[in-house]
Amino acid sequence: MFLPRMFGMVILGLALIVGVGTSQDAKKDEKKTEKAKDKEKAKDTLPPFFKGLELSDDQKAKIAEVQKGVAPKVGELQKKIGELNKQIQELKKQEQQGVFGVLTDDQKKAYESAVAAAKKKKDAPKDKKKEPEKKKDPDNK
Asked: For a Cys staple, 103 with which of 15, 32, 107, 133, CB 3.0–4.6 Å?
């Protein structure tokens, strides 16, 4: 009785491992195709409102070159922004822990109650407000 159950668990484990591995391979392939699409898109992308300007091929090539030079710098800055946002989140977490460390148990309960009430109010369906009645124009009888 123990052996069939163990065999079933082994089969289930193997199926899980194979499934996860296959899923990871699919994600890698998706990322590769997305990067290729992004590069191709970058070649054909003009800034907003440039398509109607009847640009020559030379102008389009120069614009693409400018974009190509700027794109890595923008990418680096976006990466830094992401890192800074993580730091901000960590500092806010530390702040919250410090602030809650000052509160008494009763104050913590009151805070949680106030937060729950605000969330309930926010999530409640909003009633459509009635439109105010239009005043009659005395000249238009």
From this structure: 107
Q: Which residue has the tokens 């800074």?
A: 84
Sign of the Cα torsion 56, 62, 66, 71 reads: positive
pTM: 0.42
What tens-digit pLDDT sequence spans the chain (141 residues)? 455 566 666 677 767 676 766 666 666 667 667 666 655 555 568 888 888 888 898 998 999 999 999 999 999 999 999 999 999 999 999 999 999 999 999 999 999 999 999 999 888 887 655 555 666 666 655
Spatial separation of the C-alpha atoms in residues 94 and 86, rounded to whole Å: 12
d(CA 105, CA 121): 24
